[in-house]
Design goal:
The complex is a heterodimer of chains A (373) and B (140). In chain A, 58% of the residues lie in helices and 13% in strands. With 373 residues, chain A is α/β, with parallel strands linked by helices. The radius of gyration of chain A is 28 Å and the shape is elongated. The chains are: A alpha/beta (373), B alpha+beta (140).
Chain lengths: 373, 140
Amino acid sequence: MLPNVTQGLLPGGDIVSWIFQVIFLGIFVVFMFYGQRIQMYIMIREVEGSLYKLKMMRDEGRKTAIAAINEIGKPQVDPTAQVDRFLEYFAITPVELDPAGIIWRLEHLLDVVDTRLKDDVKLMAPQADVTQTNNLENTLEVALALNEIYKVIRHFYLLGKKTLSLYVIMQVQMVLPLIMKEAEAYSSALKAFQLGQPIGDGAGALVAAKLMRDYEKTKVEKDIVVAKVPIEGRTVYVLKAEGPGANVGKPGEAIKQVIEQNEGKISLAIVIDAAGKLEGEKTGEVAEGLGVAIGGPQVDKYKVEETALKYKVPVNAIAIKEDVGDAVSPMRKEIFDAVDGVIERIKRLIRERTKEGDFVIIAGIGNSIGIGQ
Amino acid sequence: MEANVSMARRISPFLLAFLMITLVLSLASIYEGIDAYTKNDPASGSLFLTMGATTLVISTYLWFQTRRRILKLSMAIQPINTTLECQKCGFKNVREFQRGDYVFKHTEDSCPKCNEKTMAIGSIFREVKEKEKAREAGYI
């Protein structure tokens, strides 16, 4: 009977083809009702694979930090517990509801965080000198960032599995390629910080270092060095974070001090920094612009903007383009080669925008790891 | 924490059973297709073979996907070069990066040309292979 029923539906028309018909119809129905759920399981698997990779990166970061502390700091006790505590540190940003004075509150918070982290590193690695302490602090900060990324992705992954919500999983799956790129960049930064190699972010600091080389330097506000350099008949204050340890200093406060010491008689300020490139742009490309090219938590940028406004100092910016991965990994040759081009641009800007005898500020922004002065 | 992740990576027994059934059905369909061909019924044969092959490919793909993959983190050590420059004659020498190197550091190395201890580190950099550069450039 049954084979007769299916006659004409399938060329085979026997019991086997009837079974196949039912099975494929069943699959169609399953996909119709459970298609979204199947899609979700596929997404969960994708996130799972990345989570596994993130866990490996996090563990590698922790291991590298512990090894570096043991090697450099020669601690009396095992630093593992202290490192684990460090990896869970957090800082609560100031209240934004009342924005008045938020910059100063944020600056205070950042100062406290920096002091606390440095103190902890000194406790963990008592034998480390200043440069090594700074490098260790940055290594630990990278490990902390990797731990944070891993925990956030794990949170969304487990939440998605628990709630079986497509939208919870989808939001993490969509941003995952960018997060993985960032995590991979941090991962490659570990070795650079451990060994004290210059990183891409230090491009601005390198420009300043080349300009101030062989001139007398003075230390100003928090880990910033300044040198008075004659360029094209002008007096140029060149400043950068003190190297070769991992340091970004407080360039905003230093620029403010230099402007105020000169009673605002600064004809031009040029800020050089590494900037994120767009896909398709070449690493090491140089671009000129206006405004304060200082990244980070905006405190330094704010200070320069305020002081520049008060004394009507024009601020020019030079950006050295690089990928987010290049910014925290050992400096690429293209970035190194771009430095001479930047110096030429600086000289041209000085010639075009100022007169002989004027005062100029050149600030090389970025991490000075592996870059002396 | 560790348990959560390892549990999440365990393959569901239902999925495994489903895959096994699909695999068996696809093989049966292929058999039916071949059988139909031998019985001079190419229309049925093509249909069964197409169904069987498609299901076999999908189930095999899913099978490989569900296998626990041991991801190896590629933490390849990138070669970093240090360029030493003689401050007197400008002679340049490139060597591998050594711990303690930093840009503008005066080293104890003697210049092979003028034989004086005037070598300083001029640059420390990482060179990216042309292949990687081409991949970065994308469409260009």
